[in-house]
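The records we work with from here on pair a chain with its fold. Taken together, the tokens spell out the fold as the letters spell out the chain. The record below shows the convention in full.
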Amino acid sequence: MAEPAKLRIVDPEIPETADLNTLLTHVARGDEAALGQLYDLMGPAVFGLARRIIRDPSRAEEVTQEVFVQVWQSATRFDASRGSARSWLLTLAHRRTVDAVRHDQAASNRERKYDWTGGPDYDVVEETVTLGLEHEQVRRCLDGLTDIQREAIVLAYYQGHTYSEVAEMLGANQATVKTRMRDGLIRLRDCMGVES
């Protein structure tokens, strides 16, 4: 299938064989037709340069469009005594393309630095404060036990010893250790306000 013909407005004041310098002069005066002709002549070169640097065709198209918007806005800055129009256009294209790569890289770096996990499912500060308060309450309640009760509970619950190991360490029989621990746990429960 043949490609549809492109509609192009041709300014009668600009000859078909106009050079790029002449076209840029007309663009600087606000001539949209001259910009169209300039795009037809230089668009492929600008896109090709952007495409070689960026590699992503759609991003290269965006950069090409940005370059010609910049040409429209800054054509008055072109100075033919400092270089050719082609060089000026390709320099704009190169700078714009490098800026796009830097921008995209910075955005990618920000994305990688951001923690997308959403963080914990709970309030860490609240959890830390609550645990600290609970630990303080347990310590205060442990201090309210008799030395014998406290010693048996600490050996069993905090140090992980069995009834028989606690009985051996304290020099008591297992029944006595179980009674001390049961009485101490009841007092701890009452102190902590836990309902049975």
Q: What stands out?
A: DSSP finds eight helices and no strands in the chain. The CA atoms of residues 154 and 160 lie 8 Å apart. The chain has two domains: 20-112, 125-192.
